[in-house]
From TrEMBL:
Signal peptide feature range: none
UniProt-recorded name of the protein: YCII-related domain-containing protein
Family membership noted in the UniProt record: Belongs to the YciI family.
Native source species: Rivibacter subsaxonicus
Pfam families hit by this protein: YCII (PF03795)
Residue ranges occupied by any YCII-related domain in the UniProt entry: 1-104
Source taxon at top rank: Bacteria
Length: 137
């Protein structure tokens, strides 16, 4: 089972303020623990939305919308992707995740399970997708 630990954005992360050294050290230690346990797949911080864009779909049209985006509470500042045996194991790792805001500031993470190909009904489209994935075909 794969889970994504989503780090919610803050006014600081959207302003491009880099984390303090203490928080970077805490995050590095946490990710080292994940790697040592063999559950870490990936993890990184994201640049502020001022350096990004969205594509809005309406009917058959696509509209490019440049950042920044204003709803900070709905934005993502980073992620950690893990692969574990159970939902409970994912919760155990999430409980150990350092406060992404650092210190005693308010911060928030969200945990979401990823769909696996096995979650979908067999179909020609799913089989074509499986063949495109490394190590799946």
């Amino acid at each position: 089972m794969r889970f994504m630990i989503i780090v919610k954005a803050s006014a600081d992360s959207e302003a491009g303020v880099m984390p303090e050294e203490a928080l970077l050290a805490e995050m590095a230690s946490y990710h080292a623990e994940l790697a040592k346990a063999g559950v870490l797949l990936d993890g990184s911080g994201l640049q502020p939305t001022a350096k990004g864009w969205r594509i809005h779909y309406s009917g058959g049209r696509r509209e490019l919308i440049d950042g920044p985006f204003t709803e900070t509470k709905e934005l993502i500042a980073g992620y950690t992707l893990i692969q574990v045996r159970s939902r409970e194991e994912a919760m155990e790792w999430a409980r150990r995740f350092p406060n992404p805001a650092g210190g005693h500031k308010d911060g928030e993470i969200e945990l979401r399970q990823l769909f696996e190909l096995e979650d979908f009904a067999p179909s020609e489209s799913i089989e074509r997708f499986r063949e495109m994935l490394p190590g799946q075909g």
